[in-house]
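Worked problem 6 (solution included).
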Amino acid sequence: MSKKIIMMFMVLLLLIGCSAPVEEVEEEEEVIVEPEVEVIRNQFDGSPLEEGETQKYKAVAVLINNSSVARPHYGLSQADVVYEVIKEEYMETRFMAIFEGEFPEKVGPLRSIRVPFVRIFNEWQTALVHYGGAGSVAQNGTKNPDSVNALDLLTKIYVPYRFDAVAGINDSYFFRTSDKPAPHNAYIALKDASEDFPDVWAKDHFSFDEEDFSTSDDVATSVEIDYPTTTPNKVTYEFDATEGHYKRFINDKVHIDALDDTQIFANNVIVQYAEHTKVSGYVLVELKYAGDADYFINGKHISGYWIKDFEDDYTHWFTDDKEEIVFQPGTTYIQLVPIDFEISWE
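Solution. The predicted structure is:
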């Protein structure tokens, strides 16, 4: 074969190679994973804190009368956390309502403090409002055992700021009304008193989330807690699916806040089972170390338990699966009842 033909053949091969299609390589699009930003929440109602806000609060715990003569209540609907506990002689219950940020003009009727409430208050260490308390001497003049002396116990824990009308401590904000007999007619102008509240820090008492809150398949649109008190005190919660919260009733009647004529409700209801004992007529509640709990959130029941390892700890809430319970943001009611006490829901 001549050199000319060979050269032509090589050029032809070169042209064929140059005309072959070049396979395009697609560049993979870079996926940017945004780091998950932790939502810092208000530890009283679970609302997200705005940029620049810290977990530093103005808050107060108020002891509120719950005898039938004392109702209706004023300002209770604006509380963020409410504890309900049986008082002496199993006669009735009493509330400790915790307010943060927004303070009603009128709150009450007010009553005195007992040992279980002092121990609950120690978990929060906010400002404190009460109208006297169980001391060294009982109302009949006999000496009280040290175990029921709430006023003495108050001196042994940290109380940032205190209002006590009986002891004359910051008592200028208290007043009485003429629509009810004493001692069921004592109130506090809480909005005015809040000017004196110090800033406090709060521990992470609850976990909250607007969407990923705890749930189950156990429907609970109606919850009944018929307290074992000598005075009828049946608490009922009816779930309002439209509003997403539980409306509260006492003895089958709407539980009204007379301050704004609205029905009191809860986003979360905790039934906490704890040992109750009577000492000189007073009811003591063992708030450590562990016990059962029933949770009612968004129309569902979740079974679980609570743990408090030592006196200065705060109560931790878990499901039966040992997962920390996650609540809806909003108001939380904690109903303390004796061990083995039976409640019902459907």
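Discussion: DSSP finds four helices and 26 strands in the chain.
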